[in-house]
Design goal:
With about 180 residues, the protein is mainly alpha-helical. The chain is built from 3 helices and 2 strands, in the order E-E-H-H-H.
């Protein structure tokens, strides 16, 4: 417990009060300005009157380089995304055009298939044949060709016959 306060008599100086080590002074002493170390030195600075230990001063040298690098990276990413978006839009337009072309070709294919089925119907072919005086044969005959050896090509026999006729005319005129 603490002791009761003493009465102060007029004209007497005030008694000195001892403070414990735990109590801090109510007014801090003014700090002295300390020049900052050179940039990039990474020097430790101890501020006088500061209860903290010495701290490393942050370097500010690479800030401009970091800003330039991050701007380049961010710009290239944005440019890449815009390019990708443009390519996707172009591909989308090409796909739409191709889908329209495929649907048109499918429609044409259906029309041509229907026309082919109509034209190849047996009743239509028989009607066309009757209109052109065609008829089915009464009797079907098969011709068998004997194997008589090599024959002359198609145009060669005609050429040989023409040469023989020419020789006959020449010899007939002389003889």
């Amino acid at each position: 417990m603490s002791q009761p306060a003493k009465k102060v008599r007029p004209g007497e100086p005030a008694p000195r009060v001892r403070r414990s080590a735990r109590s801090a002074p109510s007014v801090r002493p003014a700090r002295r300005m300390v020049p900052a170390p050179a940039p990039g030195s990474g020097a430790r600075v101890r501020v006088p009157g500061s209860p903290r230990p010495a701290q490393t001063v942050a370097r500010r040298k690479g800030t401009a380089g970091f800003l330039i690098l991050s701007t380049i990276v961010a710009g290239s990413m944005v440019l890449g995304l815009v390019t990708l978006s443009v390519l996707l839009a172009q591909s989308s337009f090409r796909i739409d055009d191709l889908e329209q072309r495929v649907s048109a070709l499918r429609q044409d294919n259906l029309e041509l298939t229907h026309e082919q089925a109509t034209l190849s119907a047996p009743g239509r072919i028989a009607g066309w044949a009757r209109r052109h005086d065609m008829r089915l044969p009464d009797e079907i005959q098969f011709l068998h060709v004997s194997k008589a050896g090599p024959t002359a090509p198609a145009g060669e026999a005609d050429e040989l016959a023409r040469v023989e006729r020419k020789l006959d005319r020449l010899l007939g005129a002389d003889g």
